[in-house]
Amino acid sequence: METLTLANGQVVTIRTAQVADAEAIIAYVNRVSGESPFLTFGEGEFDVSVAHEREIMASLGADRQWLLALRDECIIGMANVSRQSPRPRMRHRAVMGVSVSRDYWSMGIGRALMRWVITWCRAQGFEQLELGVFAHNLRARHLYESLGFVATGSIPHAVKYPDGSYADEVMMSLRLG
Fold it and tell me: Which CATH class name applies to 2-175?
């Protein structure tokens, strides 16, 4: 567990997720799904049960980890990371996702979560960390690039919004070794 003091003096606690966090994680994901166009699902589209979320939290370990950023015990950010594949030719790769509640954008929470994930991946022996980001999410792309990630390709029309418009996804990776 670590703490992060924001520029406005608020203190954020960063810690690994636990089984008991399952309901709060679902509430957080449902909240941010309505705040951001940069997620792979929209408001009302996250259909994971508490029981399933508890199973996910119980499976955390050397191949998978979740991290929470909390302010006053309320989740305001989250990162997850997992081994890309158990197959020997792909075991060196990890894939991650990160989100921060809109009220806390551009306050350093995403960077703190990313740094933790990078450190954890190195400690687990991963050689490469990967993520996907919507091409028009310039703030996130800048953050990832500032941490050493490089664009490795893109998927045109990776996401289709309800209004019929599309978003391209940029694939990025960071060599850890």
Answer: alpha beta
Q: Where are the domains of the chain?
A: 2-175
Terminal Cα distance for the chain, rounded: 25
For residue 177 the two structure tokens come to: 């070794």
> Is pLDDT at 23 greater than 90 in this prediction?
yes
For 62, what's the count of Cα atoms within 13 Å in the CB-facing half-sphere?
7
pTM above 0.85, yes or no: yes
What pLDDT, on a 0 to 100 scale, did the predictor assign at position 1? 82
93-100 and 74-83 strand pairing: antiparallel
Residue the block writes with tokens 């028009």: 136
Beta 64-71 vs 166-175: how paired, if at all?
Answer: unpaired
Query: Parallel, antiparallel, or unpaired: how do β-strands 128-134 and 93-100 relate?
Result: parallel
